[in-house]
Specification:
This protein has about 250 residues and is an alpha/beta fold. Helices cover about 40% and strands about 20% of the residues. The structure holds S-adenosylmethionine (SAM).
């Protein structure tokens, strides 16, 4: 037994190193290249309901007097990936992106070229939970779509979103969440998340982001949100079908 111990320890150390290497080097690349096409299909299916959700951004007035004069808005998107949300932003938007996966940067700027009405301020490679490059109270609108499932801390990201929003600023979110109706789907979500899914895709299927936001521990003055299901028909997508969309106001 004691002679087995060193081999078990060395074996475990090798497994940990492989996982660490996969998570920091291979998974971000894999996600940007392989997972991206399925995001594109998802986006086509959800485009019209997303458009409705984001429609009211254009009526928001900037807290910055200079921007307000120009009819412009300062928008921060966390985890924009390849930039599928560009099309929902009003003319004169000034956009900052905070994205942890550097492999998305090129795809993001390619898409930006199709949306010249948006002025790109900055693309920051970093964590939504630690946006030290973005000053307090400086942003009119924050957007996240399908990001809270991947962040290391939902509470941490929400606190940062609240910090950077100007008073009266709005956080628009659209996230897949833990199944709210069918027990067996919830069970599979738990099993998959704790075995391989989070490890391979960097995404938790069973996050309760809706409850965390609603619990209002992160300080928003009002939160309006609805649970819903997307019209995405792929059978495998049943495990991502439960969603929440909402607007939290600082
Ligand atoms: C499922 S993709 C969604 C991409 C895009 N928002 C969309 O709806 O098409 C999740 C995105 O969140 C990014 N992400 C994950 N964790 C993050 C974090 N802690 N901070 C910022 N971005 C993060 C990923 O790199 C990825 O681009």
């Amino acid at each position: 037994m004691s002679s087995l111990l060193p081999s078990v320890m060395v074996g475990s150390a090798i497994v940990c190193l492989v996982i660490k290497y996969y998570n920091s080097h291979i998974q971000p690349w894999f996600f940007s290249k392989v997972y991206n096409p399925s995001l594109a299909v998802y986006h086509v299916h959800c485009r019209e309901i997303k458009r409705k959700h984001f429609e009211s951004i254009k009526d928001h007035k900037s807290a910055d007097p200079e921007l307000r004069k120009k009819g412009a808005l300062r928008i921060l998107e966390i985890g924009p990936g390849p930039g599928y949300n560009f099309e929902f932003y009003p003319p004169n938007s000034e956009l900052t992106a905070v994205e942890v996966n550097r492999f998305f940067e090129e795809q993001f700027f390619e898409k930006q070229a199709d949306h010249p009405h948006i002025k790109m301020e900055r693309f920051v490679v970093g964590f939504a939970e630690d946006m030290k490059d973005v000053p307090d109270n400086s942003v009119d609108i924050v957007v996240s779509t399908m990001v809270l499932c991947s962040v290391r801390s939902v509470e941490g990201a929400l606190k940062e979103v609240h910090r950077v929003l100007a008073p009266g600023g709005k956080y628009y979110y659209w996230e897949h969440i833990r199944e709210f109706k069918h027990f067996w789907i919830r069970l599979v979500q738990h099993l998959a998340t704790y075995t391989f899914y989070d490890l391979v895709f960097g995404c938790s299927l069973n996050r309760r982001s809706d409850e965390i936001i609603k619990a209002n521990k992160t300080g928003y003055s009002s939160v309006e949100q609805q649970r819903f299901r997307t019209p995405f028909s792929n059978k495998l997508f049943v495990f991502h079908s439960a969603h929440v969309k909402g607007i939290a106001t600082k």
